[in-house]
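hey can u run this one w/ heme C bound, need the structure tokens asap thx
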Amino acid sequence: MRYLYKLLAVLVMSAVFSLPSLAVENNCQSCHADWEDEGGPASMWDGDIHKEVGLTCADCHGGDPTLEDMDEVRQGRSYVGVPKTVAIPNFCGRCHSDPSYMKKFNPSVATDQLDKYWTSIHGQLNEQGDAQAATCVSCHSVHSIQPAKIPSSSVYPMNLPGTCAECHANPIYMKPYDIPTDQYDKFVGSVHGRQLLEEEDLGAPACNDCHGNHGAAPPGLDNISAVCGTCHARQAMLFAESPHKEAYAKAKLPQCETCHSNHDIIQPIDEMVGVGEKAFCARCHDADSDSKGFETAAAISDLLDSLVRIERMAEATIDEAEIKGMSVDNERFALKDVRSALVESRTLIHSFDLEKVKPEAEKGMQLAAATHLRGLDIIEDYYFRRKGLAISTIIITLLAIVIWIKIKRFDNS
Ligand code: HEC
Ligand code: HEC
Ligand code: HEC
Ligand code: HEC
Ligand code: HEC
Ligand code: HEC
Ligand code: HEC
Ligand code: HEC
Ligand code: HEC
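ok here u go:
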């Protein structure tokens, strides 16, 4: 019994002493946690970067965190409350545009988000009082804001397309604006979307890699290929030296997008070069009105076709030799070189110059042809050895018979 009293005393004492310290820490959060439903600010707040760096509700919303009553909090002069939607950029920018404040937490953090935001279409609409345009919290969420490198963040590359799609794929929401709402659907089925969302390759672009994070706007004509070129440097360089560079600029056509599109880029195939139905080239070059572009397209297409055909033939021969149990390590290696010549030729089509594609394609063809011939030799070798084996089997059998007869005679004598 005495023991219980002692325990009770200890409990009471510790409660009394811990109360004031809790109050100083954060009354806002503890009171809100008491009455809010699951999903309210106080419960979402765990994991928010602002909590992690030691900030509290009052750092954003103002108010005196030592007070124990919301009405008193509201009456305090420092209380900011909940910002109107259009006021959110400045609400967040108060800290994020202040380098001397931000550097105390993270010396390398950028402080240009708000400035860039005002240059974007989102920012411009916000400035006109349009509450539908994205603000900081549309992309970053609120009360569970996390840096982009954390997989549960709304701006983690694999989550970002879904974040943009909440507005951009919603036809009702986007109705007042005269723009398509198919970007997300197209992106998901594109080479980039599949690489990012299915293969989980963070090197593939999400929406923001092409549109920017804070200056979200469609890249202008001049910088579309610059955007693509940040990852596809070879193709961009070849294009820049090609006859199309000037021709497209004059016709106000974007560089890569003219052929590949922007959101629904599909897996390129050889039929896209040439003058056939699926060929990009045939959209602009035809036999009647121009000869050079048309002829080049047809010639490059022939080269690629030949290379692919010889490569397949060589591969089939080497496969056959391997099935027969012959060693084909060197030939497999040569086939790899043929493949890289094919890959390189496909990249070189972006010069739109037959003379640039030809040497690489011919190198591949020669190697493929030589490998095919080697394969035939190996197969012939196999038959020769089998024939040799048969002959030697017969000779040995004959010899055995002769010896047997001799032994028989010897026994009889
Ligand atoms: C004793 C409990 C309590 C404390 C302490 C408290 N709040 Fe509240 N707060 C509430 C309740 C309850 C509401 C819901 C609105 C209402 O009915 O009063 C609320 C509403 C809010 C709102 C919504 C906007 C508004 O003005 O109604 C914000 C923002 C807010 N609190 C922030 C804070 C901040 C920041 C602190 C600390 C400085 C704080 N609260 C401290 C109980 C509390
Ligand atoms: C990084 C700044 C920031 C911090 C920190 C922050 N809030 Fe908020 N809070 C906001 C913004 C911005 C809004 C308005 C969101 C909107 O309109 O979409 C908001 C909205 C609210 C609202 C009203 C809308 C709602 O979601 O119910 C309440 C209540 C609230 N906050 C409470 C809190 C509490 C409690 C904390 C601490 C646990 C907190 N906030 C921490 C920025 C912050
Ligand atoms: C009271 C000052 C303050 C306010 C207001 C504020 N933040 Fe922050 N924010 C910080 C600090 C400090 C950090 C931590 C810096 C760091 O570690 O990079 C941070 C970090 C972040 C990060 C992560 C940065 C990173 O490293 O990737 C994001 C995103 C962010 N804040 C968005 C917002 C948004 C959106 C709002 C408005 C709803 C907002 N912040 C309001 C101070 C603030
Ligand atoms: C259209 C969506 C969008 C809007 C609007 C937006 N952000 Fe961002 N923000 C991003 C993305 C995406 C990243 C992540 C970039 C990356 O992958 O590193 C980011 C990164 C950040 C970072 C980390 C540092 C940096 O610059 O990379 C901070 C801080 C930040 N945003 C604050 C803000 C603030 C403050 C606002 C409002 C003025 C805002 N953001 C508006 C999408 C947005
Ligand atoms: C809160 C809703 C919302 C979110 C989230 C949002 N946007 Fe927007 N966005 C809009 C609205 C509204 C417009 C204005 C449409 C118009 O008139 O151009 C717009 C305009 C744009 C434009 C300019 C379109 C044009 O040609 O006029 C681009 C590009 C864009 N957003 C990209 C993005 C990207 C990328 C993201 C994600 C990182 C994103 N947006 C997230 C609402 C949103
Ligand atoms: C590989 C680069 C790339 C990616 C990834 C990308 N876009 Fe685009 N986007 C573009 C280009 C280029 C344009 C410009 C089209 C024009 O001006 O003709 C554009 C245009 C837009 C527009 C203007 C309206 C339209 O459809 O023409 C919006 C809105 C937009 N993109 C949103 C998005 C969203 C949301 C995502 C992610 C789901 C995304 N984009 C992913 C390159 C990209
Ligand atoms: C952030 C980097 C990045 C940007 C920006 C980018 N891409 Fe890609 N792209 C990739 C990755 C990664 C792949 C998939 C891996 C691969 O096959 O090369 C890919 C694949 C492709 C493919 C298919 C290649 C193949 O062999 O399967 C095409 C075509 C393509 N991108 C065109 C474009 C165009 C056009 C743009 C600009 C509108 C662009 N990309 C912007 C990274 C990027
Ligand atoms: C969007 C239209 C368009 C597409 C698609 C296109 N071209 Fe062109 N091409 C042009 C224009 C315009 C010129 C410059 C005017 C001209 O000489 O015909 C040009 C010029 C050329 C030239 C230089 C002609 C000369 O007279 O020096 C070659 C070669 C060429 N293109 C090959 C191709 C090949 C190969 C493809 C397909 C992979 C292709 N083009 C796809 C529009 C296009
Ligand atoms: C005139 C049309 C045209 C233009 C413009 C064009 N491409 Fe291509 N691209 C093609 C064709 C055709 C193929 C298919 C080659 C094949 O598979 O035989 C291709 C294939 C590709 C591939 C996959 C093969 C490889 O090279 O690895 C990538 C990546 C690519 N293009 C990127 C780009 C980029 C980046 C730009 C802008 C700098 C661009 N393309 C401009 C027609 C074009």
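The pocket of heme C (ligand 6) is lined by residues 161, 164, 168, 179-180, 183-184, 187, 192, 205, 207, 210-211, 218-219, 224, 257, 262-263 (CB under 6 Å). anyway lmk if its weird
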